[in-house]
Structures
1.
Amino acid sequence: MDSLTKALAYNKQIRIYACTTTELVSEAQKRHGLWPSSSAALGRTLTATLLTAILKEENVTVKINGGGPIKDIVCEATKYGTARGYVGDPYQFYQYNDSGKINVSYAVGTDGLLEVKTIINNEVFTSTSPLQTGEIADDFTYYFASSEQIPSSVGLGVLVNEDNSILASGGFIIQVLPNCSEEVITDLENKLKTLKEVSTMVKEGYTPEDIIKEIAGENNYEILDTNMPLKWYCRCNKDNFTRSLRMLKETDLNEMIDEGKDIETVCNFCNTKYIFTVDELKDILRSKKNN
Ligand code: ZN
């Protein structure tokens, strides 16, 4: 089961949130039929969006468009630990020549922005930062430092099996609190240089607390909240699509009705299809006229 654990470490001088997201990213992979670079890009962004939403205690929408072949990455996460998302092109797969590792940077591109949107009391707040490497983790690290002015380090990773299914996925965010000493920062920086990749830790069965322990060291942290469940969830339903169809012009609806065929609508986020029959289209047209 995917989950997130929150901790303070180094005598309350830093904050660490760590999570596993293997099941959630598997769900995304299956729903969208993702190939490895698309899986890794979407999986890392889903994980980072969840970490951001839970940190901010707000529902968050993240959009990334770096001009690469994957096109847009769009993810939404709630502060309660659910997330959904999609990429413009699910069928992208590139590898680094030297290591054979999945190349995310090329698929995402670096010519664009990371955009984080929150809605607080019906008001939309948007903050953006330029993409750094298109590897997602660096881009979020830079976002937190520049837009939120909180020195942070984000680690994200997704491992993909030969058959494109997801082997492991997870992530963490470390944030330096205002009272943090220089020694702690130096110590952390050194640790991060030799830290195992987070996807490797998840593959080896690490829990979120194990990841925190690996970063902070034994007996150097206190848990604030443990094993908060994380889940893929899409809130779409047929009523949403009925409403969108009702927004169409009467002439367009009439044209669809005259064609005499069912209409298929698809949710971008989860790929669920909703079918509207000609009779349902007629009902929609009628209800539109009555308003
Ligand atoms: Zn949906």
Note: The longest helix spans residues 36-56.
2.
Amino acid sequence: MSIRFIKDKKRFIINTKHTTYAFDVVLDHYLYHTYYGKRTSSLPDPSFHTVSFSPYLPGLSEAQSPDVFPQECSFYGSGDFRPNALRLSTDGTGVSDFVYHSYRIFKGRMALDGLPAARADERTQTLEITLLDSVSGCRLMLYYTVFSDVDVISRYMIVENNGGACATIEKCMSLMLDLNRSDLDMISLYGSHCNELNFQRAALHHGTQSVYSKRGASSHQYNPFIALCDHSANEERGEVYGFNFVYSGSFLNEVDVDQLGHTRVLVGLGSDCFTWRLQPGEVFCSPEAIMTYSPAGIGAMTRNLHRFAREHILPKAAHVPHPVVLNTWEACYFDIDQDKLIRFAKEAGETGFDMLVMDDGWFGLRNHDRAGLGDWYENPAKFPDGLASFVEKIKAQGVKFGIWVEPEMVNPDSELYRAHPDWALQTEGREPLRSRHQLVLDMSNPAVIEYLIDRFDRTFQGIEIDYFKWDMNRHMSNVGSCRLPADKQGEIFFRYMKGVYRLFDWFAARFPNAVIETCSGGGGRYDLGMMPYGIQIWTSDNTDPYARTMIQSSALIAYPAMTMSCHVSNPHENLGSLDYRYKVALGGMLGYELNILNMSEEVKQTIAAQIAQYKSLEHIIRLGDYYSLASPTKYDYSAYYYASSDTRELLLTVIEKRGCPAGSTKRLRIKAARTDALYTNVITGKTYSGEELRAGIRIDLNGTDDSAHLLYLKML
Ligand code: DGJ
């Protein structure tokens, strides 16, 4: 049993394979968090320390104020002055105080109302804690779902309004974790378009530090993944707590160090882009947030998160080899037509590609980015024989077919906008701001979703699409809906995401044989909320291998290689050799964006050989355990390896960064190697003992701008 209740102590204990999480019901009211860490059976009892200026319930003392002890959930206005998990009321004050009522432990998990959630397996268990607020009449259920094998616990909440008045939720945080320490660093990933996922690590300080998005997408600017770790923690040592949010819209992750030097972590929808009006009898369900703990460094946390994403988040379709695609974007931009792409497909088939992905430019009057979004039917000038006949001809070249869509957007210069200007997000009296010349459709409006369903259904009728690339190329401003009354406008961000998820569900049901690559101008929605719908995510619009080395290395801290689309792009000056770009792209799922029609036979043959080699390695990259040896954020080079689960195969990659000095020799310790085994580098034929690999394999850095080393070590 992962979850237990010890009656005499009123104690809840959650065990995963290597961790324990515990809390007690105290004072017949509060949930006192006592422990999260290495698996143990010796748990501390709650203790209370007096602090003045902290309010307490009549009959109790300052030491029993909710302001001073670690809790499972805290409520605005009821004596806990730290950032709260919930702000809810029926009287406009925002004040509530939910009191422990009961619990339930059950096998598996419940579905989250229209939201993505981690998949249960036969070992999954859930703890439901019910609390009541007597004044509002609301019932609050906290859920703890346990994914024992991967050391992950997820949390979300449901609020049920059983009172007689409308309750307003003004802040909602799915996960709260109080730690009685603050000697920790916080790791987060920040960035911008074409510069996603920069690694940042800084010591916690008193006050609140946060990452957030108010952009309607999880964003390029801050990723929802964060971690806290010992100041001395490295890849192999130290305590590390990892957090993430299974959601793709605006969010807030807060980390607060309080007056006592204790740390509170909150992950959720926040309050800036969220309010919810809950009428009597209605129920609100928050998105799911997750946490993991590792006593053995950042690397072990990463591997927990990777296994969790692979086994519980990504769809089953991600568990077979992903297609090696030739994408038309960087090769053609908007300049596509049927003849050109059929020639692309022919060359692609002969070179060993699995699929041609027709990117932007195929629909409406989409000859540039100022028109056409929303008009999801083929442009007859580019496809005079129609889409169905075109797709047949593509497939006749021996490749599968993928197509780009951006369902959530509309250009003012489009048939759709001219017919339904009220379907774009907007606030009354203000001209909506543009971004990439486009507006955002009001996905909170069911009529918009119905329209898109009908449109795509008709456009792709009788056509076997194998792959969708689902893009989203701007953030939301002027967030208002023509359809909703004033008191519901604060719900749009959340309703929008539920509309998007509904459309994803429709795509999955309507095109059961197709897979999806998600994208938001590259990595603008690189999150666990997108991952259940797609097999991989376009990591960044920046395909410069030097930038990609940094971006991919940071992405891998939180997300498995399986999720990362890595393309070799059009060669232009300073982008390194084809070999270099290929080896950088081997960090994840390989693809290409090159004009195959302009290519010499020699280049085509090189690419054919790369694809063939990749296909022999793909299973280790996609499913293997990831070990970072040298992060390019710290060193002149990047070194990492993937190990197959039986450790019979190891794939070591070393990428020299621009300006990496020549002549230095690195010893790279491959600790996943088996001591008693002999490994052969399949590429060179050289053999190494497992002991030798564990002690450190020597790699001489060349010091040229585009040197990369690849060793495929296999027990033969
Ligand atoms: C942004 C994506 O990230 C690119 O790969 C490409 O699909 C363009 N959009 C097309 O407009």
Note: The mean pLDDT is 97.
